[in-house]
Amino acid sequence: MFENRVFRAVIMGPPGSGKGTVSARITKTFGLKHLSSGDILRANINAQTELGLLMKSCIDQGQLVPDDVMSRLILSDLRAMDQSSWLLDGFPRTVSQAEALDGAFRVNTVINLNVPFQTIKQRLTSRWTHLPSGRVYNTDFNPPKVAGLDDVTGEPLFQRDDDTPETVTRRLKSYETQTEPVLEYYRSKGVLETFTGTETNKIWPHVEAFLHRKLHSLNQKAAL
Ligand code: G5P
Ligand code: MG
Question: In which domain of life is the source organism classified (predicted)?
């Protein structure tokens, strides 16, 4: 799919906008490696690592993890991926993180899921997550085949500690104050592509068509 080029993409959007859901479709269709900062943090909490124990209260309260911790964690994972094409989900979330990423890698495109806040609140209270893989379900939208169990492994699903209505409100607030400026940052660099809607199934065909076009033009440039 990528021929000679390494393709580096970021997916952004408010909490619950469908970043994880759309990322799963992108990785399946285009074969990019998916790296989700939230999944990495939750895996650390689950494994009770030093970092996980330190960051748990921050995440449960809907606050962002400090920039230096987050940037070090993600950039070291990205460096370990070397020449792979990747899709970053949940990072960068502040301008300082975006600058740190820029210092290490050139991002080809930033996909922004623009979903209204009212839609989001309903979704998150009915989300169920398979913590080891980050697979997400929703009792209305995409229920698991057997209630409470992951389709692939049969392991139990959990509700995230930060999906309570009060914490979702705090996460949306921190998105507005700390993450929206990152959209401006990427818009000014000419790499931001925004997709607006209330349903993932309607947004997805536009994202898919955009990525096909983008990859086609990158591969053509590489062939010159
Ligand atoms: P995360 O894990 O990055 P958020 O808050 O950015 O968390 P979240 O909640 O994971 O994002 P999402 O991935 O955008 O949301 O959405 P999703 O899981 O795919 O979809 C949400 C639900 O809606 C699912 O149940 C899905 O099935 C359903 N759904 C999808 N589409 C539809 C639809 O069309 N209709 C319906 N009805 N349902 C649908 O970050 C968590 C925390 O980690 C820390 C922070 O504390 C953060 O709050 N953190 C960082 N801190 C600092 N810097 C960073 N870079 C950080 N990254 C993470
Ligand atoms: Mg997610």
Answer: Eukaryota
Rg (CA), the chain: 17
C-alpha torsion 69→103→105→39, nearest 10: 10
pTM reported for the whole predicted model:
0.94
The tens digit of pLDDT for each residue in 133-187 reads 999 999 989 999 999 999 999 999 999 999 999 999 999 999 999 999 999 999 9
ipTM field? 0.98
- Does residue 85 fall inside a structural domain? yes
Query: Which residue segment(s) compose the domain that 190 sits in?
Result: 8-115+179-210
- CATH for 91: 3.40.50.300
Alpha-carbon torsion (137, 143, 148, 150), positive or negative: negative
Q: How far apart are CA 133 and CA 186, in angstroms?
A: 29
Count: domains in the chain: 1
Compute, in angstroms, the gap from residue 104 CA to the centroid of ligand 1.
Answer: 25
Rounded Cα distance between 4 and 197, Å, is 34
User: Beta-carbon neighbour count of residue 166 at 10 Å?
Assistant: 10
> Is 163 a member of any domain?
no
> If you take atom 58 of ligand 1, which residue's CA is the nearest one?
38
- Is the shortest distance between the CB of 16 and ligand 1 below 6 Å? yes
- Residue located nearest, by CA, to atom 21 of ligand 1: 16
Is the shortest distance between the CB of 144 and ligand 1 below 6 Å?
no
Six-digit token string for 216: 């086609």
**Residue 196 belongs to a domain:** yes
Within-domain flag for 136: no
Ligand with smallest separation from the Cα of 114: 1
